[in-house]
Specification:
The chain has about 250 residues and is of the alpha/beta class. This is Amidohydrolase-related domain-containing protein.
Length: about 250
């Protein structure tokens, strides 16, 4: 019997979300009421949906990727953990880690894995790197070693997720591609934004910065078909091998 695990599943807190920068507020108004209701539900209705269309056995849930403070992450993680507690055979959780402070993110990963039984963590990034880090920090910054160290020590993966689109992103990146008042724009954006935005550069940045040399057992979880890495791997390998400054991997 095949045991199917779905790793790119989202949950949305029923409580209002507040970000430190209004421009990073997620455009949740783009999501239909029906989908919003499903995202907020972790119970019998979601379990019924697990059986369609592939009869999934286990969902690995994480909060919709948003740029929020460490305290908000703790609140969201506590809420998610309390919900999946009632269905441990059907759901597991990735802890939302704030990129405002890597040390806080590392501490939250410890707390959630050790006390909340989370199976890993999730870092949110946008087009300019890790959203929210001081000075527009990047995923390969040395400060992030605190997170990688904890993940390696507990043998849990860290998922790299694209931030949920903002209203500004929808206006500047997508609306020009569609006719005015297109009835499918919002549905396409909310469902395909991450696949459109995710790229191999985040993982390649980790690799070329030597992160996997310092943390050889680190596990990175990718969505959107592995950020295109599987299909691009031969080309990526050839390019890296042609550059003598890149250490062999």
């Amino acid at each position: 019997m095949t045991f199917l695990i779905s790793t790119s599943e989202f949950y949305l807190s029923p409580d209002p979300l507040t970000t430190r920068d209004p421009s990073t507020q997620p455009a949740l108004n783009l999501i239909s009421h029906n989908i919003l209701t499903k995202l907020k539900n972790i119970g019998p209705a979601r379990i019924r949906d697990l059986r369609r269309p592939h009869d999934t056995n286990l969902q690995i849930l994480s909060h919709i990727p948003v740029d929020v403070s460490p305290s908000t992450c703790r609140r969201l993680n506590d809420t998610l953990a309390s919900q999946i507690h009632f269905h441990p055979d059907r759901f597991a959780a990735l802890a939302l880690l704030s990129t405002w402070d890597p040390k806080e993110a590392a501490a939250e990963l410890v707390r959630c894995v050790a006390r909340k039984k989370c199976v890993g963590g999730m870092l949110v990034f946008g087009a300019e790197g890790m959203q929210g880090m001081q000075g527009n920090g990047k995923v390969w910054d040395r400060e992030m070693d605190a997170v990688w160290s904890v993940a390696e020590r507990f043998n849990v993966p860290v998922a790299l997720r694209v931030m949920f689109p903002t209203r500004g992103q929808v206006n500047t990146q997508y609306e020009s591609f569609f006719p005015p008042n297109s009835p499918v724009l919002h549905s396409l954006v909310t469902n395909l934004h991450s696949a459109h935005t995710a790229s191999p550069f985040q993982v390649l940045a980790l690799y070329t910065a030597g992160i996997f040399d310092r943390f050889p057992k680190l596990k990175i979880l990718l969505s959107s078909n592995g950020h295109s890495i599987p299909t691009l791997l031969p080309k990526i390998s050839a390019l890296l091998q042609a550059n003598p400054s890149i250490p062999p991997g």
